[in-house]
Amino acid sequence: MGWAWGHATDPDDQLDIDATRRVLGRTARMLLPYRRGALGAVGLIVLWTAMLLAGPLLVRRGIDEGIAKGDSGQLNVSIGLYVVVAIVSYLCFRNAIVLLARVGEGFLRDMRTRVFDSLLRQSMAFYDREKAGVLVSRMTSDVDSLQELVQFGLIMFTSAALLLIGSFVILMVLSWQLMLLCAVAVPFVALASVKFQRDSNKAYLAVREEIGDTLSTLQEGISGVRVVQAFAREEVEARRFSDANFSLYRTHMASVRIQCWYLPIVEFAGAATTALALGVGGWMVREGRLSLGTVVAFILLLSTLFEPVQQLSQLFNMVQSATASLHKLYGLIDEPLEIADPVDGVDMPTGEPIVLDSVSFGYAGGDPVLRDVDLEIAPGERVAFVGPTGAGKSTMAKLIARFYDPTVGSVRVGDVDLRDIGLRSLRDHVVVVPQEGYLFSGTIADNIRVARPEASDAEVRDAIDRIGVLDRFEQLPEGLATEVRERGSRLSAGEKQLVSLARAALADPSVLILDEATSSVDPGTEAAVETAMETLMRDRTVIAIAHRLSTSERCDRVAVVSDGRLVELGSHDELVAAGGHYFALYDAWVVGLGHDS
Amino acid sequence: MLLGMLASVMWTAGRVTVPLMVQLGLDRGVREDGPLLGWVLLILGAGFVSAVFLGVRRYLAFRNARIIEAKLRDRIFAHVQRLHFSFHDANATGELMSRGNTDLQHFQNVVVLVPLTFGNFLIVCAVTLIMVIIQPMLALLALVSLPFVNVLGRRFAQRLHPAVLAVQQEAAQLAAVVEETVSGVRVVKGFGSEPVQAAKLEVEADDVFDESMRASVIRARYMPAIEVLPNIGLITVLGYGGHLVLNGDMTVGELVSFNIYVLMLVQPLRMLGMIVANAQRAASAGERISEVLETAPRIVDPERPVPLPATGALGRVEFRNVSFDYRPDTDAGVLNGLDLTIEPGESVALVGATGSGKSTVARLLPRFYDVDRGDVRLDGVDVRTVRRQELRRAVGIVFEETFLFSSSIRDNIAFADPEATQDVVERAARLAGADEFIAEMPEGYDTVIGERGFSLSGGQRQRLAIARAILADPRVLILDDATSAVDPTKEHEIRDALGEVMARRTTIVIAHRPATIALADRVVLLDNGRVAAEGTHAELLAGNERYREVLAVDRAAPGAGA
Hints:
The structure holds 2 protein chains of 2 kinds.
Chain A: H1 17-30, H2 35-67, H3 72-121, H4 124-129, H5 132-174, H6 176-182, H7 185-223, H8 225-230, H9 234-286, H10 292-333, E1 354-362, E2 368-377, E3 382-386, H11 393-400, E4 408-413, E5 416-417, H12 423-429, E6 430-433, H13 444-449, H14 457-466, H15 470-474, H16 493-507, E7 511-515, H17 523-536, E8 541-545, H18 549-554, E9 557-562, E10 565-570, H19 572-578, H20 581-593
Parallel strand pairs in A: 3-8, 3-9, 6-7, 7-8
Antiparallel strand pairs in A: 1-2, 1-4, 4-5, 9-10
Helix pairs in contact in A: 1-10, 2-3, 2-5, 2-10, 3-5, 3-10, 5-6, 5-10, 6-9, 7-9, 7-10, 9-10, 14-16, 16-17, 19-20
Chain B: H1 2-31, H2 37-82, H3 85-90, H4 93-134, H5 136-143, H6 147-183, H7 185-190, H8 194-246, H9 252-294, E1 317-324, E2 335-342, E3 347-351, H10 358-364, E4 373-378, E5 381-382, H11 388-394, E6 395-398, H12 409-413, H13 422-431, H14 435-440, H15 458-471, E7 476-480, H16 488-503, E8 506-510, H17 514-517, E9 522-527, E10 530-535, H18 537-543, H19 545-551
Helix pairs in contact in B: 1-2, 1-4, 1-9, 2-4, 4-5, 4-9, 5-8, 6-8, 6-9, 8-9, 13-15
């Protein structure tokens, strides 16, 4: 009983009939490749349910044909049939589980890969907009809520529904008069079940929220324990936690109370209908209008009639939350692509300048971030984009990598619009090195190979060697095979940046966009990072989003962005001499480096 | 507890009475044409009793279990809050989280089951007894297959558990791929490595599929068998019992009640099988919980605490021949006979390479750890003889890794003193150079930050942490690399403000940036857990090669540090 308990759907997520129909239609289409298995499974479940219902009927047959008539032969026939029924039901159930699992798990596997493919195709603007936690939860909790349904929910739901309908039909056929009489209990149970389903949904949502609160308070208390102790606030925090914890207790109890009034109603309904069947049925037997076996079958069937009702009301929550999850997953699969790969994309031209032609850009519904920018970058030129945080310098660089498309104007390579270049070719030629050295799980070598999965070990080593840090990584106990996420072998922030730069060296693109880190790293690595950058910036077009004087000094030209506009353009020396925006930034940098002390 | 048992007894009594009344009704009422209404009413009565006490017993069982769970979780939290730093260094947050979460769940599951099991056990006994009284031989035949429900149920739970864990593990690996792809999307897009990630996910999705199928095969092996077993009992009842009725040795009513009784035993037997499997898990969970609860806090208040002096020039810090190591078993200690005195109101910058012990100095003064040898004194008093609360109020520290709570900015700054007025909070924010960006936030000081709220940059977080320390108004302020994430172009703003804070109290600054170091009156260079040199920044820069090396002022060697 407990397994279905623990599902709930937010009122906001509950679907109307139209949406439900769309979700179901879509699911049916996705299940098409599995239609044989699915049909087979449904067939087996139907057969299994029929066998469950056959039991009491065979007892009736045994009593009426065998015992009542004193015919031991007929009794033995009933027994034999019962044995067959038991074997068939065992086989049906067993195969239904395997078959349904194959269909369901296969469906989930397709779902996972399709949702993930859709995620990978989305533009940067999509990732700016959506919260990472929500996207991850689509692939985890939303898919997981389907998994439980696939594993047993679906079997239970189908068979409970069939059992209910089957019992009802059989009872009507056995004696519709008696059944109608017993049906007086149905409205009570039905009403109670509907109310229970709603209340338990609400109660479970409350419990889930309270659990979330309590666990995040717990988590905060543990991960922030050093701060708590540093400020001698242990007692206060313990009291605060206690409040959250006992409010969870109260919510738990509220949901227990809901079960505690509902389950007795179902239990009593079973006893009451049994009493009715015995009283009225017994009277009908005495009148000669009903056989004794029928009354017995009635009593046996009634005793199992209300269990499916109770299961259904709990399974309903499970099915509802699965439908809501499916709706969200389909939404993600169908998310329109903002940056689409052009049909018949051309290859990226080489040896041509990059041209920003009166480019403006703004995020959907927001103020423009860039206004009317014109800039031409010659092949092999190194340009630093500088400016205050939020001025638009990184947006400008990302337009060149086609992370976004300009709202107005165009970005071109030579005469070719970026939007006409095949994404594969574009990514091969234009590489963006993000400011934080983000590492994936795996070894250092795996992490560098992200830039070119087919690269050989020698090529990976060569790339690291080119930026001058091969010794540094090889002296680690396991060298390039060091797992980066394992405890103890944590790389420092600076070393992560070095890995990131080695990736760029391996990719060896013709256009490199470097997003420099703002935060300082330990002095030991800082020098290595600077050297690596210097090496990387040779012999290619480089766009550096610079936060450091040393980087912009190293470039051929500096483009100063302020408030979404390109306000100054020229060499470092020219701009310092001009005494404008760049000079002001330069001044702040020099002070920051402590050169004046 | 007694109440719960009583409820179980009543529920059992009501439950087993129903089939008995059905039997008597069928035999005496229907077949012998006796009065029927009495039996009908008795069934209703027994059904009512069993229904009411079903609810009561469930309520009592859950209330009991939830109370125990809540109290235990409270104790775990309060205890963990008091445990020393070295305990937390050795135990990851996630580990401790599972003590207060999954382990507690395992435990709670069984606590619920105990009273329910008592009821189930009663049912099994009562039903068996009744069946034996009615027809001993048939009872034996009908019941002989039922213990297997229990056995299979137990084995099923034992087999399924590792399979389900394996599925969860694969699912977690899949989630890890999704998580790293989403949070590293800039890298993925930057290098065009979508196919790499897609291939990784495909592998994980296949693994999840395989493990799930394995679990399903286990389900397919046990669930139908458990389901079909009672049928063996039912067939025996019909077969052997039917012939008994034919021979006149049993009534039809008894046959029917046997049928109902066999069905009535299925659920309780299945649950009895479950509790054995769960109990094993609960026992090891309980062990892990009590391990935490039995760890004694190592940093405790002295029995006769000495108060810190309250008047005169305050904030004198002395380290006298201090040796310390995080792990006493290793040879090279972190601090080896450190001697350092800081005068009231003085500001000192600690400089040293990684592992030189500068952060350790910062952690010994508020007594996060106890020294191995020597002593640490604040205003002449050994820190071990001061009440922790008093000591930590007197010493404020800003950690290198900023930790902020998921609450409003105001609450975060006023952490040391939640009653602080808005003026005090704003002043602390101003001194930390945080007032400007707070003013630009959507709801100013009421903006909720953290996981579910507004996310701040590293530099902004550090400035809030500084404001939090300033608000506590400690006599000694320690800044442990507290401005490392602040944008270099903005750092001078904080520096100006910090000058004001530092002017009025003893300050210990740990930093890499020359400009920050230059703020201090005196610079202390640490090497190998001892003071290697002292002087002003300019003096050391001019006269100490090691100092220049540590600050990497000479940028001559490419790939330095290799």
